[in-house]
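Let us walk through a complete example step by step. Step one is to write down the protein sequence. Step two is to encode the small molecule, NAP, as a SMILES string so that its atoms and bonds are unambiguous. Step three, shown after the inputs, is the structure prediction itself.
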Amino acid sequence: MHKSLRSWPYRKVFLTGGTGLIGGQILREMLELPAVEEVTCLVRTSNGQRGSERLSARLEKSGLSGPDLRKALARVRPVEGEITLGLWDIKPDELHRLRNETELLIHCAASTSFVDVDSCEAMNVKGTKHMLEVIQGCEKLKRLVHFSTATLCGYKPNALVKEQDSPSEKDKHLVAYTRTKAQAEQILWEKRQELPLLVVRPSITMAQGSEDPKQARLFLWSLYAMAQLPFVPVRTESLIDIVTLDFVVKSTLRLIAKGEKLAHDCYHLTAGQMASVSAGQVKEAIKRVSKEEIGPQFIPPEQWNKSHEKALEEQGLSTLYESLLYLPFINLNLIYDNSRLLDELGDDLPHLPKFTQYVGQMLRVITPERILPDSLQGFGT
Ligand SMILES: NC(=O)c1ccc[n+]([C@@H]2O[C@H](COP(=O)([O-])OP(=O)(O)OC[C@H]3O[C@@H](n4cnc5c(N)ncnc54)[C@H](OP(=O)(O)O)[C@@H]3O)[C@@H](O)[C@H]2O)c1
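Step three: the predicted structure of the complex.
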């Protein structure tokens, strides 16, 4: 156990999103802490699979198996729920128990879709409002950790974004996801006097080290899809902020472990100036591992015109091009300042590698033949 976690202050934890990428890893690592007596996980049934089975499958993806998995699961209590519904649709006796016991609530559940506006509204905005009802009368609640996103700053090209810069109602947004995550934070900041709030804002989070192709291809699919095109409107020098899952989860737990000693109530969990990479560097890194001259040619966005789009159309590549919803984000050239986190954790800052150092290893895990069909399906095109 890392020394910063030895004085972990919370015994009874309530977690949402435990079947997801970040929540699942949070669960895995919290179960390493002897001070954690029980983690209650809000979970949906899916395709007839019960909550306990889904959480078990998620922990397996994080490397737990056999007796270790059984031992870990003994401290996990699944509770059925649905964040889009009032009181998260938790049964009254469960709600009573949670309100009596919870010391730490970590809210990871959200819609991360870039296209499904309704799910973003329902999960990110309504889900957050419902959380405030759920915690009514939670006498022992000492910390509420809300997973937000650094991208909630919206459309601010070429900026160095600090935590205190956002959110603002005046911000423009490229997609409903970032807008609704900003609204969710606003709802919580309005109650900041009454809540033991800690907001963490990761940037693009990569499942580096995961052997699971589905986890590994998040975001990476878009680079692979881009490589199928002859040219794309990308600024070579544009900086992209990408972090590892390990960095996000370890940073979060080390912040939580500081209890009331934290200097701030909101932290970027981002690569910042130190570890952001340019689009050109990413292209070079991929070229090094693939050992071949792969596309696409980067065209500066201001030189992109109808003739490029016509050429893509003629080659039957328009749908693929239109599915690249990350493109405008790549061109934003944003740095999410992480100096609060660096100051807070000091020598306890988890390893923060640059994306270019591990993209090659991740490309070996993904199954390229599934990327295009899955991506196009996932983006509703
Ligand atoms: N991944 C990133 O790059 C990234 C970057 C910045 C911020 N974040 C933020 O970090 C948090 C976790 O993201 P993630 O990548 O781990 O997301 P994820 O893998 O998509 O997981 C989402 C989780 O939310 C649960 N969920 C979704 N809708 C629900 C509902 N209606 N009721 C109950 N549970 C529901 C999902 O449960 P099911 O398994 O039942 O679907 C799943 O456990 C989110 O708040 C996200 O905005 C993520």
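Step four is interpretation. The mean pLDDT is 93.
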